[in-house]
Specification:
Layout (H helix, E strand, L loop, with lengths): L3 H7 L48 E7 L2 E6 H7 L1 E6 L2 E8 L19 E6 L1 E2 L2 E2 L2 E4 L2 E4 L5 E2 L5 E3 L8 E3 L1 E5 H7 L4 E2 L7
């Protein structure tokens, strides 16, 4: 989930679904105003408290590989911008960038507060391990000095044009993920923890 401007820049030939659906509906209006308010109980939810102290409506980016799962709270991703971690024996890197608004916050989708976008990758290219970090307002790898975007594409430097191998990750509210995977490790700011 990324902002339109980031998608359009990364994929100028990308296809967009039309709003001309044959139904008289304002697709820009939010029918779930305030649904993602982290300070309130979820709409119609009467279940148990969520595990590990995260609010039920906390946004998390989740990765599930080999029966192990980890959740990266969006507030921690926003602070770090780049997270290096391991899931089992697999190193991974999660990139976060601003520019994506909440579709559930304001009366109109276009007025939702900033929530950002996240994606996970295997941090290597052509067999070379890469150590990615947030430096001078950019995602940069230490090994080549190349800069990267949230799509895993090298924008500048020796690896320009290269792409990192994506790892499947899903955006959730903690409530919806924890209901099915209560054994999920929550990223606390340290790799593997």
């Amino acid at each position: 989930m990324v902002g339109w401007s980031e998608f359009a820049e990364a994929y100028p030939e990308g296809t967009v679904l039309t709003r001309e659906t044959g139904y008289d509906r304002n697709y820009g209006r939010n029918p779930y105003l305030g649904y993602d308010d982290i300070t309130r109980s979820p709409f119609l939810y009467e279940g148990p408290l969520t595990p590990d102290g995260l609010p039920a409506m906390a946004r998390v980016f989740t990765v599930d590989r080999g029966g192990q799962a980890v959740a990266y709270p969006y507030d921690r991703l926003e602070e770090a911008r780049v997270v290096r971690d391991r899931l089992g024996d697999q190193p991974l890197v999660v990139f976060w960038q601003p520019g994506t608004g909440s579709a559930l916050d304001g009366a109109f989708v276009s007025t939702g507060r900033e929530v950002g976008a996240a994606a996970a990758y295997i941090p290597e290219h052509a067999g070379q391990a890469l150590t990615c970090e947030w430096e001078d307002g950019q995602i940069r790898d230490q090994e080549t000095g190349s800069t990267w975007d949230v799509f895993g594409a090298a924008l500048q430097g020796p690896l320009r044009g290269a792409r990192l191998q994506p790892i499947v990750g899903v955006n959730h509210f903690w409530l919806s993920w924890a209901a099915f995977r209560p054994d999920t490790r929550i990223y606390t700011g340290q790799p593997g923890g």
